[in-house]
Prior knowledge:
The protein is 85% helix and 0% strand.
Amino acid sequence: MSFRAHLSILVLAIVTLLFILRLVRRRRLRAKYSVLWVSIGAALAVLASAPVVLETFSDLIGIKTPALTFLLMAITFLLILSLHFSWELSRLEDRTRALAEDNALLREEVTRIASLTDKSPESGSG
């Protein structure tokens, strides 16, 4: 890759890291996700500042062009991220369903108690 490409990736990595830190500081991004994104930003910075690492890894796995290795790594990361978010979504759907069922049971209990107190004889009449 050319010097301009490495410089562009390095600037992109730094901007990404600053943006992630800003989101965490403003409490817009939870800490468990910020670790993931900071790791990705740091990996981008390493790959941009030391292109030999990507070239060596490309040679090691048998890909001739480092750019294709980078693309393969990006696609793999996005697939894993998509799988993780699908898992989180499924877990949250299960929790939402359980909360809705609990809410319905509590509402029924409150309605039953309210109807019993409305029908009870008033004290002191006689």
